[in-house]
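Good morning C.,

I know you're traveling, so I'll keep this short. The sequence:
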Amino acid sequence: MAISKNNAITFGASGTFAQQMVIRQQGGKTVLCKRPVKGKSKYPEKEQQMRDRFLEASLYARAAISHEPTRLAYQAAADKGQSAYNMAVADFYIAPVIRSVDSTAYTGAAGSTIRVRAIDNFGVQAVSVEIQLASGETLEKGNAAADVNGLDWLYTATQPNEALAGSKLIIRASDLPGNVTVHEVTL
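The C-alpha cells, ready to paste straight into the viewer:
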C-alpha cells in the first residue's frame, strides 16, 4: 500500500486504476493499494464466523455513533486520523481484562471488601462479584463500585461467610458493547 502526499495527479482521486490498483481517500490522505480479488467460492466456516463478527461490530458501531453522547466519547478517545466509528468497532472486538483480584481485606465478615482491577480499551462499564460457598451455593452477589483511582472496583460484602476456606469469588467485568469477562478465584 502506498500513501500519496501532496500529489497533484492523485489528489482527491478514488476508484480503480488500470484494473490493477485502487485509489482511496482515508483520513485526508490518498491511499493506493492492490485491487481486491473477489472469490466466487463459499467462505470457509472460520472465515464466515469472522465475517459475521465484523457485521455485528459494524452494526454496533453504527448504533453507538448515532447516540450523541456515545459518539462524542468514542471521538474523544480516538487517535488522530481515527473516527468514532473505528473506535466503536475496536471496542466491540476487545473484551475487558480482569488484571487482579485482591481478597486480602475480605475476612468473611459483612462489610469486608474485595478489590478488582479491570481494564478495557475504552472503559469498563460494570463489575459484579458473586460469592459462592464451598458447596456451590451462592451466598451473595452484587455490583462493585468504581474506585476513585479509575482502575479498581470495590465490592463490599453484605452477608457473613462463616466457612471462608473453599469459597469461590466469581467476578464479571463488562464493557459498553456488552463483552463480559469472567474470572474465578478460590479462597
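Safe travels,
E.
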